[in-house]
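Take a specimen:
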Amino acid sequence: MKEEFYLIDPGGEKVGPVDIVTLTSWARDGKILPDNTISDLEGNICKARDIITFVKVTPKVKNENINIKPFIISAILMGIICAVCVVGYMGIRINYDNLKKDNEALNNKYKAALVTVEELEKENLDLKKNNADFIQKMIKDYNLVESERNELKDRLNSLQEESKALKEIKEALNVPDYVQDKEEPKKEEDCVFKGVPLPEDL
């Protein structure tokens, strides 16, 4: 006669009786855990692990033919996409470095242009200053020449007035403008010593 057992659930209810083969089958299917309570027909209680050997059952994998071609194609496409991305990134990186160098060169040229503009502005200010000084000097010289001209003009007017006054005085006194004293040549008979030759210069 086979030995039979009861399975006592957490609520205290008994399931069975079943033989040891059935309990082992239930344990394999996961219906019985090692801590579940088992009772024999006489009422002796123990844990399931004490009478059943629990073996970890590995689920069977169905041996089916798997088509791996789609996975290979997907892997190839992913590789191509990754390669394109890497090449694109390298190209972008190279272009970025070139643009950075060009930007630095433009910045240097801009700074040089600013320096040149500052120098030109400084030269322009110097030229304006020199022109202003020259214009002031010319104005000063012109004013000086104009003052001397006015002074000469005043002196000329004064001389003209004096000449006019002298002319009026001469006319009032009836004085000729020019009197030439002309001595008559000495005659021989007027000489005290007659017969004495007169000097040649007389």
Remarks:
- Residues 150 and 178 are 34 Å apart (CA to CA).
- The domain at 4-51 is CATH 3.30.1490 (Dna Ligase; domain 1).
